[in-house]
Amino acid sequence: MASELAALLQEIMDIESVSGNERELADLVEARLSGLDHLEVFRDGDCVVARTGLGLGERVVIAGHLDTVALLDNLPSRYEERPEGDVVWGRGACDMKGGVAVMLRLAEEITEPSRDLTWIFYDHEEVDAARNGLGRLSRNRPDLIEADFAILMEPTSAQIEGGCQGTIRVELVTTGTAAHSARAWMGVNAIHALAPALDTLAAYVSEEIEVEGLVYREGLNAVGVSGGVATNMIPPSAVLSINYRYAPDKSADEALARIEAWFPGYELHVTDSSPAARPGLDRQLAREFVTAVGAEAHPKYGWTDVARFSELGVPAVNYGPGDPSYAHRADEFCPVADLDTCAAALRRFLS
Amino acid sequence: MASELAALLQEIMDIESVSGNERELADLVEARLSGLDHLEVFRDGDCVVARTGLGLGERVVIAGHLDTVALLDNLPSRYEERPEGDVVWGRGACDMKGGVAVMLRLAEEITEPSRDLTWIFYDHEEVDAARNGLGRLSRNRPDLIEADFAILMEPTSAQIEGGCQGTIRVELVTTGTAAHSARAWMGVNAIHALAPALDTLAAYVSEEIEVEGLVYREGLNAVGVSGGVATNMIPPSAVLSINYRYAPDKSADEALARIEAWFPGYELHVTDSSPAARPGLDRQLAREFVTAVGAEAHPKYGWTDVARFSELGVPAVNYGPGDPSYAHRADEFCPVADLDTCAAALRRFLS
């Protein structure tokens, strides 16, 4: 079984699909699933959706993206025997064609599922959010995304990672008055005006927040600062870019309210905001999934597309083969054992 | 008299001499002064030095630069009658061909001075210090700069401005550890490490320091800040550029020591350092100059070439026609009355 999944993973990887170039791989997925009696297949751009329609009362979405980040001389794929276990090496092995291989195999194999299934293979995940294929599908065909539970097969080393933290970025802008630095008292120094904000950031202690049994860890950080016009001029403006990563007990609005409370009196501009996703582990289907996988659930600190399901009221978890810390690296790989583990767990849950 | 000086100023202005293009104007100065019995003329590049050699025991330098900053559609010059008094308008009127006109006229006129005179017309003042013509002359012919007192005819609105403040700039560098901002605790934020330094800057109160009867006003300011690599990354480094303007009671080393005391534990790199100049108003010649001018002496906050004389042990003051706040502006001008005032005062002092 493992070798069959590894071979499928290599076949998928060797169809290069850097974001924007997903067509050939989407065609392959569509072709393989279109001929099957138990699935109805839809296409939206280079997003392929395959659904069972057995009227089982409950529906589970399993989703994964077809695209990868740019190549770093890491295709074609290689099968490698390593002391710690065999791996498939190359672009996409980890993020996330291992998950796509498991999805494609199980979509074909599970003809009589225990709940109705929606398999979503989508495009443009590794680029700016506006082009995200799952986002586009939710606008074009929201009915195709409806479900009671969603599994996003991003790499988690075959562990369950529940929900995801939200992220919001603001630019804190200070305004002063330019003057020659030999006569500083004629001006107002906008960089000096950042001092209270930096004090708040330096004094911040990361909060740990439990949501549905998972402990999230928040973060409040400056990610950029700039100011100054000339070396002999009192700077008339400065900008501090602040990123707040917050637990899924808060909405995006609540996160912004906390930022406003931390930095009173400052001019703030939101430049980026992606809501958190609750893990949804209080739902019956999620509990059954955890039992079927037989693994402990962990919190997801980073932001992923599970938040899109959460926004639609669908509880979602991250679960897939591959160590996420290797994502986007030139030497990314997927342990063959992870493919097997994930396929077996999903087979238990879905059959 | 006023109209004669204004005409000379316009003649000098209409010979464009943006830094690097001083030759034609230097040639004019050299030609006018070379034929005179009472002066010995020297040339060093586009610097012209004219000296009396009467063995009078005391020597006064009067210096001014021939170059201007770039044109802003402000040549040829114009003579304008304004309600507040006639002016000459155009590039160099203020900074500092008004002073050069007075110098040239008096160098020709004062054939029997009360102390020996050295007139220095120099190049490349408006560019980086390494190319400064007065600096070059002090290296090539230090004997030509020796004097008991120096008058730099930079614009001061015909007021005496004594000495000049020193300026030192340092880059304060912080180092952290990069990490994904979703896992901030894996990294160390270099921007946050700027907080104590900004607190010191924000709390700084300008010190007023009396030197030889003049009250200088110091300044400590951030003039630039930068940091941050990507909006989802904990910044591994940040740089704060700090400018300290200090009174002439301190050497450059003492100024640096104060900066080191203000910012303990930080990595500091000196990027620029120009020493202060004492006003020298405790000297007999300087007191006589103040009496001859009949004006109160003020401190000079900015840095000027008087510091070069001060380094050679020659007390120096700034004194010249034109409002310094118009220097480098497109609409710079010189009041004709200032030309008259300065010429009359120098005639009293030098004759």
UniProtKB/TrEMBL annotation, chains A, B:
It holds the Pfam family M20_dimer. Its EC number is 3.5.1.18. It comes from the Bacteria. Transmembrane segments: none annotated. Gene3D superfamilies: 3.30.70.360, Zn peptidases. Residues 166-263 form the Peptidase M20 dimerisation domain. The keyword Cytoplasm does not apply. GO terms for biological process: L-arginine biosynthetic process; lysine biosynthetic process via diaminopimelate. Keywords: Hydrolase, Metal-binding. One of its GO terms (molecular function) is acetylornithine deacetylase activity. This is Succinyl-diaminopimelate desuccinylase. It comes from Tessaracoccus flavescens.
